[in-house]
Structure formats: structure tokens, C-alpha cells
Amino acid sequence: MRNSDVLLFVVAIFLFISCKKDNDMPEGKVEITMLDTVNKLRAAGCICGEDIMPQVPVLKWNVQLADAAAAHARDMYNRNYFEHVSPEGTSAFQRAAAVGYEGTTVLENIGRGYKNTAAVISAWKASESHCKAMMDPVVMEMGAYSYGGFWVQEFGK
């Protein structure tokens, strides 16, 4: 094998690995981009379905809500289901309480198969109920997580 062939082979492998990495779905904490994107939406106001949603206060990141989101994303992935309520009947509120969240309100958005935060937020914004959860003036905190193509947002007060 000539040196130029070896160099070409190494470059091809590098490009293959680089391209594959770019297409991987993010896993784990998505707090910076998720919180920033949702807060920009809340600060600007938007239209959810046919309803005009005015500006609402920005959200703060909440670790317990992020932990609840992580648990639910992993559970859906590991047990191959896609629902707000687990097969045993556990709700978003119950999952948040189980990790120590003491709020009185919990709302949840779930998504599956999106490659990045912008794509899942765009899909949620296009869905009236998901959009209204992101724009709900009652909630003051948020946690989110992505795992194996499953996305979960938890909102609370």
C-alpha cells in the first residue's frame, strides 16, 4: 500500500467517524440549550394552535425536575414505551415527588426521535398542548433530559 493510499484511508475513516458523531442524538443533560430556547419562547410570546400566548416570566432550572425527566426518558427507552404514564400507572407528578420535588404543579412534554433540541422544541411548539405547557404562566421551573432519542421536559411550580 502506498503512502498516499494510507493517507486517503485515514482521512476517509476520520470523516466517517466525524459524520457519524454529528448525526448521533444527544443524550443526557440538555439544560443550557433547552432552558435558553424555552425562555426565549416565553419572553417573546407565541401562538399555540389558534390561541395567542402572551409573554410569560422565564423559567429557572430545577435539578429535581431534571432528575424526574431523566428517569422517565431512560425508563421509556429501556422498556420500549412512549407515554406520560408508566406501565405501572406512575404520573409525571408522582415521578417528580419521588425525586424530592415539592411543587404543587407538574406538567410534562415528551418526544421521541428528534436529533437535537431545536427539532424537538419545534415539534412541541407546533403541537397546541405541548406549546401551552411551555407557555403556561403558572409554572416557574423546568428540568429536561434526553436519552436514546427520548426527550422529556418537566415543568413545575
Automatic annotation (TrEMBL):
Pfam families: CAP. This is CAP domain-containing protein. InterPro entries: CAP_dom, CAP_sf. Residues 35-148 form the SCP domain. It comes from the Bacteria.
